[in-house]
Design brief:
362 residues, mainly beta, 7-stranded parallel beta sheet, 8% helix
Length: 362
């Protein structure tokens, strides 16, 4: 079936984000936030660039030490430049440290890896367990954050029988105006948590030219997120079985959810074994209105012919799931099980619509 048609709107001129930065998918650089020159009563600016290197040739040897060095409420952009290497640590950028950029020093996302192995059920040193959000290798709670040319990994072993709750997040974001360009997010279950600070807050995320890997609900949360020009890789479970779900949005009513555009979804998994997504009503919250749109994307035969499914008693048909002009062996014609946007509707489901006036510029 098709969704209920809407009257076509007059198209507005394409902004810079559509005509340059997002059209190319390479070389994206977001204009730094502008702030007044610090005074005695305003926050102190950090050094413009902090270098991290495992071999001691930088300012710090760990990424978290560099984040810690940024003053609270820093008023201007700080680049944390990370030399090639594997950094086994957890990293947290708190809400009071905006304008941070994590940047690998080479053009390859594989040269810098931040990795850890906490899972939801991993015991914490002080008692209890980490929980899903607490399992993140890297947690970004600040606004105006950027990451490029590096990968975030959670290498928790799903075969660990001593831990029942196996959700293991590689990267969690909870801020607004987040850019993830030329990055990797690698894990199994719950790899990439794109969230917002609270249900009533907007968390806009722009993901470009990324490699995102997992098997169960591995792109999830309530952010208003664009995933563009990205490779979304499906992987088998620890027991060798195929089957899972790409997206589990938990979008608040009246807000935008996930927009997958100009990407490809494939993997070395069984044919017709993966759903595109399902509605996550976090905490059983019936007021949520999960949304996922997959458009202009190449779908492999791994995608089921009925690509959406229910979750925890909530029907996907009561929420907002649709496709538009996908290609590949996993694509399909409009039906009651595969809602398709009309051309008129698709005009309102563009990247600029999702970012709501925020224009990452080159």
């Amino acid at each position: 079936m098709t969704l209920s048609p809407r009257r076509p709107r007059r198209r507005r001129p394409a902004p810079l984000i559509g005509s340059l930065a997002l059209a190319t998918g390479v070389g994206l650089a977001v204009a730094p936030a502008h702030a007044a020159t610090p005074t005695a009563d305003s926050p102190t600016a950090a050094a413009a660039t902090i270098v991290v290197a495992k071999d001691g040739s930088g300012t710090y040897t760990t990424v978290q030490a560099a984040v810690d060095a940024v003053p609270a409420n820093n008023p201007s952009a700080v680049t944390i430049s990370i030399k090639p290497g594997t950094y086994r640590e957890t990293v947290k950028v708190p809400a009071n440290k905006p304008h941070i950029r994590l940047v690998g020093t080479t053009s390859s996302k594989n040269d810098v890896t931040i990795v850890y192995n906490n899972a939801s059920g991993t015991p914490k040193p002080g008692g209890g367990t980490y929980g899903t959000s607490g399992s993140a290798t890297v947690a970004i709670e600040a606004d105006d954050f950027q990451a490029r040319n590096l990968q975030f990994v959670n290498d928790f072993n799903e075969g660990n029988t001593s831990i029942t709750d196996k959700q293991a997040v590689a990267l969690r974001t909870a801020g607004d105006q987040i850019v993830l360009d030329n990055i990797g997010a690698v894990g199994d279950q719950d790899t990439l948590l794109l969230d917002s600070a609270s249900k009533d807050r907007v968390g806009r995320v722009y993901v470009n030219n990324a490699w995102i890997q997992g098997n169960v609900d591995f792109i999830f949360g309530r952010a208003s997120a664009v995933i563009s020009k990205s490779a979304i890789r499906l992987v088998k479970r620890y027991d060798g079985s195929s089957g899972g779900y790409v997206a589990a949005p938990s979008t608040a009513a009246g807000k935008k959810g996930f927009l997958f555009i100009n990407s490809n979804i494939t993997g070395d998994v069984g044919s017709r074994s993966f759903y595109l997504g399902r509605p996550w009503h976090a905490g059983g919250d019936a007021s949520l209105d999960p949304q996922a749109i997959v458009r202009n994307t190449d779908l492999s035969a791994a995608i089921k012919t009925t690509p959406w499914t229910d979750m925890s008693g909530f029907s996907w048909k009561d929420d907002r799931f649709a496709e538009y002009k996908n290609i590949g062996a996993g694509s399909g014609a409009a039906s009651t099980d595969r809602p398709q946007l009309t051309d008129a509707q698709a005009a309102d489901y563009e990247i600029a619509d999702w970012l709501g006036g925020w224009q990452p510029s080159s």
